[in-house]
Amino acid sequence: MRPDRYAACDRVNQEKRKGRFHCAGCDLPLFSSETKFESGTGWPSFYAAIPGAIGTKTDLKLILPRTEYHCARCEGHQGHVFNDGPPPTGKRYCNNGVALNFVPVSA
User: For the chain: N or C, fewer Cβ within 10 A?
Assistant: First the structure.
């Protein structure tokens, strides 16, 4: 059986409705559903963040440098950004689904 964190990641990754993905720690909107795409990684992926919503730093934990990103408000870890995403940015913000809550557009 898979740990619960995978179920949360699957829940966010499968979300197809219009809305925003918020930081699970402080509820700051981080991503719009309009920038979500299927990366084939099993992790929720976005090609752009909401302006000013995230901060970045270099992560050397796996020897090779990666760019880690976090919530700009509470600094909660969200994931890593890679340069293999789709146009128009070419970025792939690969997010930990446990770190996000989805808020649908109000009817």
Answer: C
Residues 9, 23, 71, 94: which is the catalytic one?
94
Spatial separation of the C-alpha atoms in residues 49 and 56, rounded to whole Å: 12
pLDDT tens column, 51-64: 999 999 887 777 77
| Active site annotation includes 74 | no
Element holding 5 (H helix, E strand): helix 4-13
Backbone φ and ψ for 20, nearest 5 degrees, come out as -130, 150
**DSSP reduced 3-state for 44:** coil
pTM of the model: 0.86
Q: In what order do the strands lie in the sheet with 19-23?
A: 29-32, 19-23, 100-104
Q: Collect all residues with Cβ–Cβ distance below 8 Å to 12 and sequence separation of at least 6.
A: 21, 44, 95, 97, 100, 102
